[in-house]
Fold:
Amino acid sequence: MSIFDNPRNVALSAAFGSALLLGGAFLFQALGYSPCAMCIWQRYPHVIAIAAGLALSVGAPLMIFALVGAASAATTSAIGIFHTGVENGWWEGPSSCTGSGASLSNVAASDLLPGASNKPISLVMCDEVVWQFLTLSMATWNALLSAILVALWVYAWIANGRALRQHKARVSAANGS
Structure:
């Protein structure tokens, strides 16, 4: 028996994959790799995919929530591709998180936010790669691994649709229709 024999298990595996990617992002943050704005943007769709998986685990309809999961994984993958392009200088990123950041690097947080501490802010720019493995940045890894999750969600959706059609055909044949 394979995980691919049960579409719901495939979808739950995809949701678990989003949980692992999100957990990895928080682990890197805990290790001192502060996220940039686009890194944060890539996290939100994972939360939605995880929520879709939780809904499935309590019996929600697979046909709907597999599409939610697939759309979420596709969204984070697309943001990761865009972020990769910004990091590599293929296109410009949002002006709010690209450039040198030199003008803000020594600004105290209290100058920007009343009541904040006086520690200098740590500004992470979206066009700088702060970590890479096998020459791929975190954004690129997120894009690639999330694309695999999209494939799992879509497979679950297709396999579930096929199983529903086969079930209808069996019921119809049993009823003599």
Notes: The longest strand covers residues 132-133.
